[in-house]
Amino acid sequence: MLPVITLIGRPNVGKSTLFNRLTRTRDALVADFPGLTRDRQYGIGRVGPGPYIIVDTGGIGTAAEGVEALMERQVQRAIEEADHLLFLVDAKDGATPEDIEIVQRLRRLGKPIALVVNKSDTTDPNLAVADFHGLGLGDPWAISASQGLGVNKLIEHVFGQL
Ligand code: GDP
Ligand code: MG
Fold it and tell me: Which domain of life is it from (predicted)?
């Protein structure tokens, strides 16, 4: 069985962009508006050590529904079958109240989680990362899914935790 790595995070943080980067496909829809990934999407990870299964999650509607949607069956199942979670946040936004709520739920699962600060190309990566230490998930990993920065190192780290 290949290890299963699952992407979690509120809408628009770049989960599908990272999925496409890791699978070297355009299978996941990427949009400027949230909620486009309706369901779980599976792919074979080809970046970094591997191979592995990568799972994109979605089905999350408006921001207000985001945390509730985490409990939705599809996302819940995706989380259950994961060997490792990548929790994505947006460097531009800082840690939002929704991020904090999602972290509280994820932590209870007792699964390995990496905190991934995406879109670090849009701001000073050091500043971006500093704001996210408070989430209590350890050192954040600054990446740019769209530019491919930090992605290899992140997957190497994940494999070290499996
Ligand atoms: P999802 O809803 O979490 O799946 O997010 P998407 O992958 O659909 O991305 C949402 C928006 O963020 C799109 O406009 C992407 O092009 C943009 N985006 C994703 N990753 C990056 C990144 O690393 N840097 C920048 N600047 N934009 C990004
Ligand atoms: Mg998506």
Answer: Bacteria
